[in-house]
C-alpha cells in the first residue's frame, strides 16, 4: 500500500469531491507505483489552521513512494499530483501543497 495523507480544512470539501479526489489519487498510485493507495483524511477544525496569518484554505497531499525516486522522476509526479488535486479541489497553486516522499531505507526514519 502507498500511504497518502490528505489534509483539508473543515467544510472545505463535500463528499462527492472527496470521493472523486480519492479515486484520482488511487489511480495515480496504481499508475506510478503499481500499488493501492491507503488514504488517511485529516480535517482541520475551522479556525485551527492558518496560512500567512489568515484562516487557511490550503490542501496538503503527502504520498510516500514505495521506492527511492530520482529527482527527474519525482518532479513530473509532483506536477501531475498537484494538477489533479487542483482540478478536483479548485485550489490555486498557492493553496496546494503536495509531497512525494521516498521510502526510507530500513533503519532510517
Short overview:
With 109 residues, the chain is of the alpha/beta class. 35% of the residues lie in helices and 29% in strands.
| Separation, N- and C-terminal Cα atoms | 18 Å
Element string (H = helix, E = strand): EHEEEEHE
Reported CATH architecture? 2-Layer Sandwich
The named CATH superfamily: Macrophage Migration Inhibitory Factor
The Cα radius of gyration reads 14 Å
Shape: globular
What does this structure look like?
- By secondary structure, the protein is of the alpha/beta class.
- It has a single domain, classed as Macrophage Migration Inhibitory Factor.
- The chain contains two helices and six strands, in the order E-H-E-E-E-E-H-E.
- The protein has helices at residues 15-33, 71-89; strands at 2-9, 37-44, 50-51, 54-55, 59-64, 96-101.
- The chain has a four-stranded mixed sheet.
- Helix 2 links the parallel strand 5 (59-64) and strand 6.
- Helix 1 packs antiparallel against helix 2.
- The chain is globular, with a radius of gyration of 14 Å.
- 19% of the residues are buried.
- The mean pLDDT is 92.
Write the layout of secondary structure elements.
Blueprint: E1 2-9, H1 15-33, E2 37-44, E3 50-51, E4 54-55, E5 59-64, H2 71-89, E6 96-101
Parallel strand pairs: 1-2, 5-6
Antiparallel strand pairs: 1-5, 3-4
Amino acid at each position: 500500500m502507498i500511504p497518502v495523507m490528505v489534509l483539508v480544512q473543515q467544510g472545505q470539501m463535500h463528499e462527492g469531491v472527496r470521493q472523486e479526489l480519492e479515486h484520482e489519487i488511487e489511480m495515480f498510485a496504481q499508475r506510478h507505483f503499481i500499488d493501492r493507495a491507503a488514504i488517511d483524511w485529516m480535517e482541520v477544525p475551522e479556525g485551527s489552521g492558518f496560512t500567512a496569518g489568515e484562516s487557511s484554505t490550503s490542501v496538503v497531499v503527502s504520498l510516500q513512494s514505495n521506492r527511492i525516486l530520482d529527482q527527474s522522476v519525482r518532479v513530473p509526479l509532483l506536477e501531475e499530483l498537484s494538477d489533479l488535486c487542483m482540478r478536483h479541489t479548485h485550489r490555486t497553486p498557492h493553496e496546494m501543497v503536495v509531497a512525494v516522499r521516498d521510502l526510507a531505507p530500513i533503519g532510517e526514519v
